[in-house]
Amino acid sequence: MKNIIESKELRNREFVFADRLDAGRQLGSLVTKEAGDTGLLLAIPSGGVPVAAAMLPFLQWPLDLLLVRKVQIPWNTEAGFGAINLDGDRLFNQRLLDALQLTDEEVESQVRKAFASIEKRNELFQEGRPFPDIADKNVIIVDDGLASGYTMLAAVKYARRRKPASLTIAVPTGLQKTVKNLAAHADRLYCLNIRDTSSFAVASAYRNWFDETDEGISKLLKRLRLP
What are phi and psi of 53, to 5 degrees? Predict the structure, then answer.
């Protein structure tokens, strides 16, 4: 698709970024070539925040958060069968959900847990600040990678409802089929490291991978002095 921008040199390679900050710097260098002078970066916590922070010296745009959450599989909190945003939009991987054979009550329980987590993070990270007015503005939604893509899709749906002038997705790494699916929902999609391998993990693009903590993200946001 014509609206996908990648690095051909990084195609199908693993461990191409030292960490999220390194990935953000490389992504910022690419995005700034076409981004324009004004806009807003929207980072998806947790992993998208350090990536977006490292992009700031290149774009010098304001940074804010777009809160969405994976709906976790009950017995495997590292995996999810969909995602939810602050508007309550539920986006499910129906094929996976059918295979899991969860009851309606189990699905609802996981959805409630995910939404409660979003509300808790909203209080922790935003400290009462409302979501910014993005109507008629250029926005770039940033995360640390695209695997299934449901979290990003939930973020895009939340942003689109608020009528931005343009919506761009920017991630360091992504699964090829997911990148193509998401590109259909964006004006432009940047993904440095696209992989079409049968076995894909966002973590395998990073030499130093670790789970960002809420405490660490809070400290980073305070250093950035978000408005």
Answer: -60, -40
Q: Do 59 and 79 belong to one domain?
A: no
**147 and 93 in a common domain:** no
Question: Do residues 88 and 52 both lie within one domain?
Answer: no
Domain of 168 in residue numbering reads as: 4-66+132-224
Whether residues 165 and 86 share a domain: the answer is: no
What 3 state SS string does the chain have? CCCEECCHHHCCCCCCECCHHHHHHHHHHHHCCCCCCCCEEEECCCCHHHHHHHHHHHHCCCEEECCEEEEEECCEEEEEEEEEECCCCEEECHHHHHHHCCCHHHHHHHHHHHHHHHHHHHHHHHCCCCCCCCCCCEEEEECCCECCCHHHHHHHHHHHCCCCCEEEEEEEEEEHHHHHHHHCCCCEEEEEEEECCCCCCHHHHECCCCCCCHHHHHHHHHHHCCC
CATH number at residue 35: 3.40.50.2020
Residues 57 and 74 in one domain: no
Q: Across the chain, what does the average pLDDT equal?
A: 93
Percent of the chain clearing pLDDT 90 (strictly above): 80
Amino acid, res. 89 = D
Q: Are 94 and 79 members of one domain? A: yes
The model's pLDDT over 92-101, given as tens digits with 9 standing for 90+, comes to: 999 998 898 9
Q: Who's near 214: CB < 8 A, 6+ residues apart? A: 45, 46, 121, 124, 125
